[in-house]
Amino acid sequence: METMLDQLAHLETEALAALPTLADESALESFRVAYLGKKGKLTALSAGMRDVAPADKAAVGARLNEVRSAITDGLSSRKDALESARDAAAVAGIDVTLPGRPSLGTGTLHPLTQIRDLAIRTLRGMGFALAEGPEIETEWHCFDALNTPADHPARNESDTFYLHDGRLLRTHTSTVQIRTMEAASELPIRIIAPGAAYRRDEIDATHLSVFNQLEGLCVDRDVSLADLKGTLVLFFREIFGSKTAVRFRPHFFPFTEPSFEIDIQLEAKGREAKWIEIAGCGMVDPAVFTAVSSTRKDDLLDPAAVSGFAFGLGLDRLAMILHGITDIRHLIENDLRFLRQF
Ligand code: PHE
């Protein structure tokens, strides 16, 4: 009978000779199982240790470990060799030293999106939450509830897009003031609503029939004109720079009293500083609270108990002033030569 050492020698020779013929992962795995697995040949041989004479045990044991490492190492180098061969085949015929082709350029956000995000971020920081409402509106939400009389010129068919069913495309985002107050469950109400507004304007460098507004509304028990001024001065200085001058010029809106237009004067850098009209605002007219209260079952918005301020501004205009854009139509043409500048 072969001695244990002979058997080990045979097994080693056989295994090491078989290794180079293994051609893929599954062959490697079968080999591993055949030699090193629970029922593998080497495992079976090690069971023979039991019968080795005590004096020989140390030498045979050492040899057993040697053969096991030889097979294990052989297996892993064969695996490495197969992997590199596969990688080499994959890149064969590819010149990895060729310079890469330029990929599609990275896009940027549209200047309007940028200014809208900046405005939202700034006002959110002051405690305003985002609100929204539909672009197709009722006359009630767009005019009546906003204290705009039936004969007001803004209600003319020549100014407003009416649908056949009597609804209309909202002419301003002030509709969201009404929607928000109808649904409010507690005070304070502090919202901003960016969104589209529609007017039947002649299209030119400063007018489109759809443009982007940002509405703001703050209602609570003791909201004052000082709150309005503080909020908006801070807002415009955040957007246009801390040296921006802001003035409130008396104006009229049906839904605010008193009402103002806001002008800003950008920091003069050599050129003559002009006052630029930038927004409308005012203290919510009590008639608006009365109108909204008529749709509510409680007295949360009792005109005798609450006050508020509102403002509305054109985001397109904000972007134009900020970037010195002279024609509003650039904002919707998607000409890359224009867009790449932002
Ligand atoms: N809705 C007004 C407009 O479109 C702007 C405005 C909003 C004025 C809120 C006062 C208060 O011109």
Which features characterize this protein?
single chain, 342 residues, alpha+beta, BirA Bifunctional Protein, domain 2, 2 domains, seven-stranded mixed β-sheet, two-stranded antiparallel ribbon, 12 helices, 9 strands, binds phenylalanine
What would you say this structure looks like, in words?
- The strands form two sheets. The chain has a seven-stranded mixed β-sheet, sandwiched between helices. A two-stranded antiparallel ribbon has the order 2-3.
- The chain is built from twelve helices and nine strands.
- α1 (4-18) runs parallel beside α4 and α5 crosses α10 (315-323).
- With 342 residues, it is an alpha+beta fold.
- It folds into two domains: 2-90, no CATH class; 111-339, BirA Bifunctional Protein, domain 2 (2-Layer Sandwich), CATH 3.30.930.
- Bound molecules: phenylalanine (PHE).
- Phenylalanine binds at residues 172, 174, 253, 256, 280-282, 310-312.
Characterize this entry briefly:
This protein has helices at residues 4-18, 25-36, 41-47, 57-91, 111-125, 139-142, 175-183, 225-240, 286-293, 315-323, 330-333, 336-339, and strands at residues 129-130, 136-137, 168-169, 189-198, 210-220, 245-253, 256-265, 276-284, 307-314. It has 342 residues and is an alpha+beta fold.
